[in-house]
Structures
1.
Amino acid sequence: MTSLPQTTGKKLGLVIDLDVCVGCHACVVNCKEWNTGGYGAPLADTDAWGDNPTGAWLNRIHTFEITPEDAPAQIVHFPKSCLHCEQAPCVTVCPTGASYKRADDGIVLVEEDKCIGCGLCAWACPYGAREMDPAENVMKKCTLCVDRIYNENLPEVDRTPACVRTCPANARHFGDFADPDSNVSRMTAERGGMDLMPEMETQPVNKYLPPRPKTRPEAEGMLAPAIAPKANEGLLGWIDRALERLG
Amino acid sequence: MHPAISVIFFTVMSGAGLGMIFLLGLGWPMPTGPLAAFLISLLAGGLTVAGLMSSTFHLGHPERAWRALSQWRSSWLSREGVLAIATLVLFGLYALVWMVTGERMAWLGLVLSLFAAATVFATAMIYGQLKTVPNWHSMWTPVCYLAFALASGMLLTAGIGTADVLLGIPVALWTAAALVIAWVAKLVWWNRADGTGFSATGSDTGTATGLGSLGKVRLLERPHSGENYLTREMVHQIGRKHAKKLRIIALFLGMAFPLTLSFVAMGAGQAAILFLIAFVCMMAGLFAERWLFFAEAKHAVSLYY
């Protein structure tokens, strides 16, 4: 049934810390590696070693440049995967019931045997979180590694999405947003975690932590006098005056 | 958005077919005899079915298409499938009675017309519902689809039907009015689409990344060096190259020629062939119009690319 659940018991999702992400793409690679052998059909590539490689990925990193009006530009690496929205538009448009949001933990999944590959869910998603598999012709999306997080065959430390487990910078965090004391809820509250395109009214579960404010030299009044070179004092001042006198 | 030929063909053809079914259901006078009944039904049903068949060609798994009938409670695409099949079943029944008894059942016809119109509405809502594509997200989208289905269906019906005058008004004036209404709606749609962009939702790269409050945000590097499903499907830009010329072609073939031919037909009295030529012209114009409907539409995901 492609109607959305009224509420979900848990709200499992990710916090992505844009202040920390270094854009190494390790999460992208580990996501592909895990999910090509796990849930559903493999994540295919076409022309993988050719001139025009292309394929299905569930997690991609964009890199943006922010230019403030009064400061130099800064770079932000921006990982993007399914946000497991509470009002997921991709679910309600699905004509077959293949797309659904789980009532117990809020994970949005595709039942691939029911997917007819019409692509309407990808059109309905503002975030580009869904990609058609070029070999199987079914819609692929982030499963929040549903086959890891509940998998008792894995050591407990590995029962977390592959992208989170692999991140060498600790920029990705997994948890339950329904629990106000969870790691992700606390981080979101402390750092002002934000929704992407809130105006689309999708109510994303995943939150992004904005980059921390950069220190700006002109704002650092305390140390500035000690650092700024002064040509009228000490040895430098004497040399300066001596050179001036030479004409 | 990527303009898929199968979907353009589907919306244009089944639009005309359903427009004709709508008018047949309302009792548009037709030649009598079982053979005429059979051929006319085959034409209207055939156009609709050809369109629906074509729409399955863009599916990854056409063999599972039957599953799309299950989610009519929530999905416009599913509703469209259910309504299309219901309309065709009703039309089959209507055509059977017409062929066997020579009678066109008025009450069944009215129900049929209602279903045909609802099917076109549901088709349009597949696009009209998408908040991610501001050009489409408007009630003007179903208005255009309905008006185009009626106008194209009416040209075909007028070419085959036996009526010169309906409700005291020459048939040529009916077709002219349908054409004008349809293209006025489309001009309103184009005008809205040109002025809207993402301003309707206020989305830009700043809201897409959540970083807009920190400064001006622009993409520095794409996630991968090559294309991907998203860029091919939703960040498609090639089709926009000739947008202006295609709009003029659509207006000439879709409106100016059929409208002129309608007036010539009025002067010439019964001139079935003129209506049929006008119909073919309009279909060509609608292909151009429908290409632009997709090619000019910008998707929110393009803000990330």
2.
Amino acid sequence: MSRDSQTLTLGLVALGGAAGASARHAVGGALPGLWGTLAANGSGSLLLGFLLYEALRTDRLGDRTRTLLATGVLSSYTTYSTFIVETTRAEPLVGAAYLFGSYALGFGAALVGRDFAARVDPREGREVRA
Amino acid sequence: MIATAAVALGGAVVALASVATLATVPDPALVALGGAVGAVARHLLGSAVDRDAFPLGTLTVNVLGSFLLGLLVFWPVGGDALLLAGTGACGAFTTFSSFSVSTVRLWERGDRGRAALFVAGNTLLAGAAVGLAAVVAAAAGPPGAA
């Protein structure tokens, strides 16, 4: 990778990271307590599942688009550190429910995203969503 | 490469968190700036250690970022510094979406043992890292007390 393209990649990741973290902060402001992190992690897992499976099915998404949206925006929009700190600080029962609920939601959302990608693109070829 | 990225992240977080004039910066800008730094650090460190067979990069950033956020929360650092280094940098440095999608990918391609190891590893190591951060923060005493 050339120096210029490396710089472009880092710029896209930084831009996406700023946007993703800001969106997560906004969701956290709109929903109280653990619900904000849960909503961001669930919706981000759904969108990343869709994006990556879409990229696997077709080559429609270019490398730069993936870098900006997947590595930059969606990975920053979701957070593991806040999730695990919240888990350890919660009451034990609440923490256990939050831990397993987050995992169930995250895995389920990634699967829904995967299936949505298959529905949008039932064949290998290009099929634009209506 | 890995060491450079880790040192760069740690240095950036400490430097950003220790800036005394953060109050003049609007909250959304603090979160956005921290998010940019955290995402770049994750990309550098993650792509250096990730493997095709196992998402070691995601595991590494999640454990390291959880330790750093634990330090900030338990020390405790509050207000603007927490927005910048915690919500922004550590929040963006770690990722739940990649964790979820990587787990599903491992599982459905038949690597179920690795999928379970990945989930258990993230949970137990990040949880332990937060516990360690609490101990280190307690030993260090409150900010400014030194």
